[in-house]
Predict the structure.
Amino acid sequence: MTNAELPAPRTVVPIEPSLLIAEAFDQAQVTELRHSVTSCAHAAGLAGQRLDDFVLAINELITNAVRHGGGQGWLRLWVRGGDLVCEVADHGHGISERRLRDRDRPAPETAGGWGLWLARELSDTMEVETGEAGTVVRITSALTIRQTATRPLDG
């Protein structure tokens, strides 16, 4: 492998027929990748504010991968059941345990530290696997809002 080639992603998620995107990226591809994510998420069924929120969460994750994860990353987007799932992986030095435990909103004057908080707030679920070999963040957004069944009132 030459220095120009990207190493294979660390995490293996079964590839399903519903895989929408599987792509390596660096800073030069961030904008184009965000547009691809938007198109695929919309085609999968996200719309309106839920689409905007999910794309913003993903944008924060890919930006973090570039800034803190060695300058490059890997994104996978797929449908699993009624959820749209996005995984962003990098080969950085991991995220500190203190940072992962911190669920508080960053102070408004804070220049950094918003990425994981925003991703957590703007998605339905978020899982993080991190260590010296890198980080994998997986977020989901329900494609349909699950409604509770209601019973008609007896009249």
